[in-house]
């Protein structure tokens, strides 16, 4: 009767492969009576040969060009089952790394293009513009939310905030809510809360 040998004993030199085989089968290995090698060794050899042999692989040498401003180089990784790495690429840094738009006194930053998230266009682009002046030297309007508003113009900054352009500056107000109560309830479309059950 053939002698039973567990895989872990027979496959000491195939430690990595043998662990995989041990998970697949808990049965001990039985050497073939007319063979010099164990079926476990044959299984181990066939499983290691299924891994790609990259010793003869010729990978293209790629030199990474410097990434544009506000982006970083992401090194290409070797996908599982492949020999050569994917090309490196540039990727935008998180939006928080974009510098604030700074303009000299008397001018405002006006966004001229939005970021696309592509390297080279990671951040919004701004231009500093001065408000046009009336013949007497007073500002002809004010910049608000990226638009030039005429002197005296009114607009809503949000549902409850009304703004007006006065002497080249936006002056905004929120309505004062007269009612005070213990259990206020805010209703959709209304700025001031209403009192519940009072």
Overall description:
Among the domains are: 7-49, no CATH class; 136-198, Complement Module, domain 1 (Ribbon), CATH 2.10.70. It is an alpha+beta fold. A 3-stranded antiparallel beta sheet has the order 7-8-9, with no helix packed on it. The protein has a two-stranded antiparallel ribbon with strand order 1-2. It has helices at 7-10, 15-24, 39-49, and strands at residues 71-74, 89-92, 107-113, 125-130, 141-144, 147-150, 154-156, 162-166, 169-173, 184-185, 194-195. It is built from 3 helices and 11 strands; from the N terminus they run H-H-H-E-E-E-E-E-E-E-E-E-E-E. Helices cover 13% and strands 23% of the residues. Mean pLDDT is 71; it is low at 1-48. Strand 5 and strand 6 (147-150) form a beta hairpin. The longest helix has 11 residues, at 39-49. The radius of gyration is 36 Å and the shape is elongated.
Please describe the structure with a list of short key phrases separated by commas or semicolons.
VWFC domain-containing protein, Complement Module, domain 1, 3-stranded antiparallel beta sheet, single chain, alpha+beta, VWF_dom, 198 residues, disordered N terminus, signal, CRIM1
């Amino acid at each position: 009767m053939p002698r039973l040998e567990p895989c872990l004993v027979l496959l000491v030199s195939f430690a990595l492969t043998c662990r995989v085989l041990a998970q697949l089968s808990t049965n001990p290995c039985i050497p073939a009576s007319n063979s010099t090698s164990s079926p476990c060794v044959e299984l181990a050899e066939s499983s290691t040969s299924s891994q790609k042999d990259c010793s003869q692989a010729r990978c293209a040498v790629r030199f990474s060009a410097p990434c544009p401003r506000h982006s970083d180089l992401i090194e290409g990784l070797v996908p599982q089952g492949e020999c050569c790495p994917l090309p490196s690429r540039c990727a935008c840094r998180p939006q928080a790394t974009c510098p604030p738009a700074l303009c000299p006194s008397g001018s405002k930053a006006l966004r001229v293009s939005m970021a696309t998230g592509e390297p080279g266009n990671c951040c919004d682009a701004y231009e500093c513009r001065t408000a046009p002046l009336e013949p007497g030297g007073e500002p002809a309007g004010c910049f608000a939310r990226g638009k030039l508003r005429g002197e005296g113009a009114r607009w809503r900054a949000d549902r409850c905030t009304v703004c007006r352009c006065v002497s080249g500056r936006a002056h905004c107000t929120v309505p004062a809510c007269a009612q005070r109560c213990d259990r206020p309830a805010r209703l959709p479309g209304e700025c001031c809360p209403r009192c519940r059950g009072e």
